[in-house]
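Field log, afternoon session.

UNIT: design team B
ACTIVITY: writing a sequence onto a fixed backbone
BACKBONE:
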């Protein structure tokens, strides 16, 4: 049985990456040739991820495959970022994009990858609840003008600020040691959304 062409499956992998950015993952990407993607962080860290596949399990319908990303074109360390079942729309796993990217420590440290994986997974799977705007610093509200604020059920100190379906900021009440900022920390995502072609501003 011939292996699927990575270039043909690259659009599915790209959708998983863009979905992760929609959920607020602070990363830039560029599509390369032969199903490869260059990922980049603001700190200059870079890494290339390659599209490949693994077969479905015995529990999956016949013909099911998983689209994967990995730091090498040929490797056993493939991270599934989408599930393709015949006759159905692709099922994306945006939180797994972080796991794949973390194969490059310059992109995500182990701790960072864990935080972002949990954030994206909870948001993607609906493990969230509505939060009151008063729980978020007014300065951040003025900067991002969100239409919805969601608090993670599993990480109640973390908040996603959305404008429509796009996460425009992540806020955490937990302040890193030594910062001395009583209102917590946040990251806005406009530049990543814009670079991915998801917003115009």
């Amino acid at each position: 049985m011939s292996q699927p062409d990575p270039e043909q499956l690259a659009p599915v992998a790209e959708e998983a990456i863009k979905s992760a950015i929609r959920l607020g993952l602070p990363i830039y990407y560029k599509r390369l040739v032969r199903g490869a993607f260059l990922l980049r962080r603001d700190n200059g860290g870079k890494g290339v991820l390659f599209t490949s596949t693994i077969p479905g399990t015995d529990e999956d319908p016949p013909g099911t495959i998983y689209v994967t990303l990995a730091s090498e074109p040929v490797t056993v360390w493939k991270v599934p970022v989408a599930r393709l079942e015949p006759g159905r729309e692709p099922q994306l796993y945006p939180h797994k994009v972080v796991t794949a990217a973390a194969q490059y420590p310059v992109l995500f440290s182990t701790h960072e990858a864990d935080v972002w994986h949990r954030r994206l997974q909870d948001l993607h799977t609906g493990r969230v609840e509505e939060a009151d705007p008063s729980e978020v610093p007014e300065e951040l509200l003025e900067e991002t003008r969100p239409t919805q604020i969601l608090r993670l059920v599993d990480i109640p100190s973390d908040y996603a600020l959305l404008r429509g379906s796009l996460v425009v900021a992540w806020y955490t009440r937990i302040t890193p040691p030594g910062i001395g900022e009583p209102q917590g920390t946040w990251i806005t995502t406009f530049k990543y959304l814009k670079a991915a072609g998801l917003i115009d501003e």
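LOG NOTE: The longest helix spans residues 6-22.
NEXT ACTIVITY: expression trials, pending approval
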